[in-house]
Structure of Rhamnose ABC transporter substrate-binding protein:
Amino acid sequence: MKILKTLLVTAAVSVALIANTAQAETKKIALVVKALGIGFFEAANKGAQEAAKELGDVEVIYTGPTTTTAEGQIEVINSLIAQKVDAIAVSANDTNALVPALKKAMDRGIKVISWDSGVAPEGRLMHLNPSSSPLIGNMIIKLAADNLPEGGDVAVLSATATSTNQNVWIEEMNKVLPNYKGINVVATVYGDDLADKSYRETQGLIQSHPNLKAIIAPTSVGIVAAAQAVTDAGKVGEINVTGLGLPSEMAGHVKSGASKSFAIWNPIDLGYSATMIAYDLINGAEAKPGAELKMGRMGVVKLDDNNEGAMADPFVYDASNVEEFAKIF
């Protein structure tokens, strides 16, 4: 009887030890967003939870402040340090303000990355951009060319003439333009990211270029204004509006036919990739120039000299999926 009791106690202790070990091995990855209650980030969390389920030994802590402030994120980060999480993946409200708190986290052995909206290099191990300028430049011209098998005249409606990212994207677009035979870029105009001016500039394009077949607007304000102007001019089916936009703002224009397709990053893929990268770093991967970090179903991300990398091509939205994503962002 005494032997049996001893065996039972030993077995119970062994089960407890196994359970504690399993619990200890669970990696805690915090997905820190700009603010809670934003559809884009809720979608990113969906991707992060998908990654956690796929990995099996990960708990994703989805968190952020109630307002988009650096102070709120710093408070969240300090709380996560106290919880001794294994990694923090943050979309930053401020490039520099979060650095001291994130450095403190790294000093405690926590792997820190930024994604979507970056922090300064000294405050993270790497940064995940949703895409890259060459990928975006190629995508915006491809969206127009894919619907013009015989070629045709295309115009660009940008934001401001001094907008750095817009100008780089257009420059990258022009680099790959020779790959798209028969596509002629006849004009580039600027709507200053103002809806009314973008609308008027589109009207001007329609009047000045009677053979216009597509308008590329790599700006979420411009693409909506251009689609509305094309609709009001009775040019749906004649002029296709494409570029970069939000599903919630473009769903109606896709349904009407003013826009056959457009692109922007997929937040689900972004949250998934950030979680996978954090997990890779926890397990010993090193973030250094030239390194390739694992992103699960999204492949790998190669880091540049600033320890930054691009996830993928912008995600394309059309009649097959825009309504689903319009509910998200």
Notes: Confidence is low (pLDDT under 50) at residues 4-24.
